[in-house]
Write a structure and sequence with these properties.
- By secondary structure, the chain is α+β, with helices and mostly antiparallel strands.
- The chain folds into two domains: 67 residues, wza like fold (2-Layer Sandwich), CATH 3.30.1950.10; 83 residues, Outer membrane lipoprotein wza domain like (Outer membrane lipoprotein wza fold like, Roll).
- 17% of the residues lie in helices and 27% in strands.
- The chain has a five-stranded mixed beta sheet, with helices on both faces. A three-stranded antiparallel beta sheet has the order 2-1-5, with helices on one face.
- The protein is elongated, with a radius of gyration of 20 Å.
């Protein structure tokens, strides 16, 4: 419903949008999400080492520490949270916590409209607009590939509708519009 209301006021895509101001998720530390798998190790205390898949509620269970919120945190932030809570139980200062991302399961985008296979696309790496449309089967013969709309939720909760000229991306004429997609972005091919 949100996507339909966002598209109702969309006219043809123009080049007046500032695509360069859109964040590139490859340039910041990854935020952990539900279904991602993390490895936690504690130097000098191997019995506390564990691997855990982030539950739908966003938490992981760590031995001795219990449940810790992981979703929305970077591996560095999760490491610091576990280290802080672990200090109540392990007094050895050499017991240093490490957190590594073992598998990505939370990165997904939604491709809707006149594409071969509309739906959710999951990937273990970041996708561009062109890659996501291609993975969704490309435009159907009835599509209007000149226009594409990217719907994105900002960190503050606002939703923006970004016009994309897919035909220019395919022609190699406007690579700035071939944005790197963020988790839960939605693409619509009219």
């Amino acid at each position: 419903m949100l996507l339909v209301s966002m598209l109702a006021g969309c006219g043809p895509a123009t080049s007046s949008y500032s695509y360069a101001n859109e964040p590139d998720p490859r340039k910041i530390e990854y935020q952990i999400g539900p279904s991602d798998q993390v490895g936690v190790s504690v130097w000098g205390v191997p019995e506390l080492n564990t691997t855990a898949r982030v539950r739908p509620d966003g938490a992981v269970t760590v031995p001795l520490v219990g449940d810790v919120r992981a979703a929305g945190r970077t591996p560095t932030e999760l490491r610091d949270a576990i280290q802080t809570r672990l200090k109540a139980f392990v007094k050895d200062e050499s017991a240093v916590v490490s957190v590594v991302l073992l598998a990505v399961g939370s990165y997904r985008v939604l491709v809707l409209g006149r594409v071969g296979s509309p739906g959710i696309i999951q990937s273990e790496h970041f996708l561009t607009v062109n890659e996501a449309v291609t993975m969704a089967g490309g435009p159907t013969p009835f599509a209007k590939p000149k226009r594409l709309v990217l719907v994105r939720r900002r960190p503050d909760g606002t939703v923006v509708s970004i016009p994309i000229r897919y035909d220019l991306i395919m022609a190699g004429a406007n690579t700035a519009q071939n944005l790197v997609l963020q988790r839960d972005d939605q693409l619509y091919m009219p």
